[in-house]
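During the no-cost extension, the postdoctoral fellow (Dr. R.K.) reprocessed legacy sequence entries with the updated structure-token encoder. One reprocessed record is reproduced below for audit purposes.
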Amino acid sequence: MVVNAAMCLQVANTKANFKFCELKAAEIEKDILCERFDTTLQKYQPKSTQTTITPVFTPIEKPKPKLDELWEKYSTFKKPQVSPSTFAKDFARHRNHIANLPTRSLDEASVMRDYLLSNLTPNAAKRYLTQFKACCN
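Re-encoded structure tokens follow.
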């Protein structure tokens, strides 16, 4: 028996659908021979394989860290790698700029960038943004 998958059950013409339709055709043929053919054709419709699962619990979202929290961790990590004077001077300066930012939320990075660009020279803003990016990475 020749079966066209596109015509059978109105599905895409793929090898998997072709095989599925061949099996359905064989099932229909068998039901006709055994005199149990379903004239409503409901028996031969594909069953939905997707089910909706309602979660038993709501997943807890971890709060996203703020820039000042990340900076403290980053400073601790970098301290052994830089000279004591660099750490004391530069890292404190960065901490002070973070304290003056209008927001510390990483979701509002563009607000922080705009603030730095409007309050510092372009070169200084770039240096701070580079350090903040390293901190966030």
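The helical segments are 15-33, 67-78, 84-100, 109-119, 122-136. The chain has five helices and no strands. The remaining legacy entries will be reprocessed before the final report is submitted.
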